[in-house]
Design brief:
It is a single chain. With 227 residues, this protein is α+β, with helices and mostly antiparallel strands. Helices cover 25% and strands 24% of the residues. The protein is built from five helices and ten strands. The strands form two sheets. The chain has an eight-stranded mixed sheet with strand order 4-3-2-9-5-6-7-8. The protein has a two-stranded antiparallel ribbon with strand order 1-10.
């Protein structure tokens, strides 16, 4: 069984401007390809930080090497450093250099109000969980057409199935909710999306693609121990 470890980066990096080059140098990342995707899709102008993007793409590459990914063309990134009023979910076709979806995503009601600042892997916490997930099978439930998510990181999100953390549509994920509340409606911990986009999103990412939920408190764990 292959498990994600708690191995930390070789050295902490304190300044944002030096982060990406130093990490790429340290771990031999395929910087040119990743930079090309990030720049060509103008993801900086769409609010996605390069740090979140870099973590996501490197995690995808590691998971591909381990044979865990069925659909390696598509990756979903949710950037919880951004306020919920931003369209902070990005679904990318990394092989064809396309931004497939850029939309709102809810966080858990106990993770914060406008911005998610607190995260948990605990049952009934009503908080979001960070890290890498694999999408599982879709199903029809209390929130309509929904998508199961399998958390890949022990202690961080591996109770996602037990907690019923799924991707689903919700009417509180809308501009009208933002207009009324001043922030997006919140979930019980699920990355809920607009109702009208839930089915096309699920059909695009279901059954074996990577979903990554990011916040600046996240520490990369995409190193694997053979056991």
């Amino acid at each position: 069984m292959t498990n994600i470890s708690w191995r930390a980066p070789m050295a902490p990096v304190s300044e944002e401007i030096s982060f990406v080059p130093m990490y790429r140098m340290s771990f031999g990342w395929t910087a040119n390809r990743h930079q090309l995707i990030y720049d060509s899709l103008h993801l900086d102008l769409k609010g996605l930080s390069e740090k979140a993007f870099t973590y996501a793409l490197e995690g995808l590459d590691e998971l591909k090497e381990e044979g865990k990914v069925v659909n390696d063309s598509v990756i979903t990134i949710v950037d919880f450093d951004q306020p919920s009023t931003n369209k902070r979910m990005y679904i990318l076709d990394v092989k064809n250099f396309k931004l497939l979806f850029n939309t709102w995503a809810a966080h858990g009601r106990k993770s914060g109000t406008l911005v998610a600042t607190s995260f948990s892997n605990t049952m009934s916490s009503n908080k979001s969980s960070l890290g890498f997930y694999l999408t599982d099978e879709p199903y029809f439930g209390g929130n309509g057409y929904s998508l199961k998510l399998k958390g890949l990181e022990p202690g961080l999100n591996d109770k996602a199935m037990q907690r019923a953390i799924v991707l689903h549509g919700a009417r509180y994920v809308s501009q009208s909710s933002i207009n009324e509340l001043g922030y997006l409606g919140r979930s019980f911990g699920c990355p809920a999306v607009p109702v009208e986009l839930s089915q096309p999103i699920i059909e695009t990412i279901k059954e074996g693609s990577v979903l990554f939920i990011y916040n600046s408190s996240y520490h990369p764990r995409f190193f694997y121990d053979q056991g």
